[in-house]
Amino acid sequence: MAQCGAKTRGGEPCKRHAVPGSSRCKLHGGGSAKANKGNKHAAKPGSIYSQFLTDAENDMLASIELGKVDDELRLTRIRLMRALGRESEFGNELEIDSEKLETGEHGGTTTTSKVRDYSSLIDRLTARIESLERTRAELLKANPPEQLPVARIEIEVVRGRQNPKAPDDGASA
């Protein structure tokens, strides 16, 4: 195998083997471009959270108007609405957590149920919203929105002095 072509901090040549198809080892960037090529899970604008939201929540996401930390605030508000809906639907009842079909000698279905603590989740989400709103207010205080440009300035001169070098209005002889 070929040696890495990079130099170490001490100025010596790197003694590691180069990654196949590259002149560098893993530590010096060999093969890193191939790892990132064609990444289907790469973040695209608007895709970080939208793939996990329902159609109604995606419509609502666009209609909630906020400031600089708007995406996190929108997501947290949607999660809060989900939690409130689940709490009203299930309350303190057992909720099916998972179902598993078993095949073989015994067969049948195994279900796992548990009671979820929606009140603490709702409290955490409410505190998160409060924190994000506080951050948003601080950002707005530090960077106030740009004011509209001045369209027209009117100046009214009251008892202005006449320029001594300017010609008179024709009253001198």
Textual characterization of the structure:
This protein is mainly alpha-helical. Among the domains are: 1-30, no CATH class; 65-141, no CATH class. It contains 4 helices and 2 strands; from the N terminus they run H-H-H-E-E-H. The protein has a two-stranded antiparallel ribbon. Strand 1 (95-101) and strand 2 (109-114) form a beta hairpin. Helix 3 (70-90) runs antiparallel to helix 4 (118-142). The longest helix has 25 residues, at 118-142. It is flat and about 110 Å long.
Topology:
Layout: H1 32-36, H2 55-63, H3 70-90, E1 95-101, E2 109-114, H4 118-142
Antiparallel strand pairs: 1-2
Question: Summarize this, please?
Answer:
The chain is mostly helical. 35% of the residues lie in helices and 8% in strands.
Order of secondary-structure elements = HHHEEH
Average residue-wise pLDDT:
75
Shape: flat
Query: What is the radius of gyration?
Result: 34 Å
Strand order, largest beta sheet? 1-2
What is the helix tally?
4
**Could you give the count of β-strands?**
2
Q: Sheet bearing the most strands, described?
A: 2 strands, antiparallel
The poorly predicted ranges are none
Fraction of residues in β-strands: 5-15%
Question: Based on helices, strands and strand pairing, what is the structural class?
Answer: mainly alpha
Helix content: 25-40%
Ends distance: 105 Å
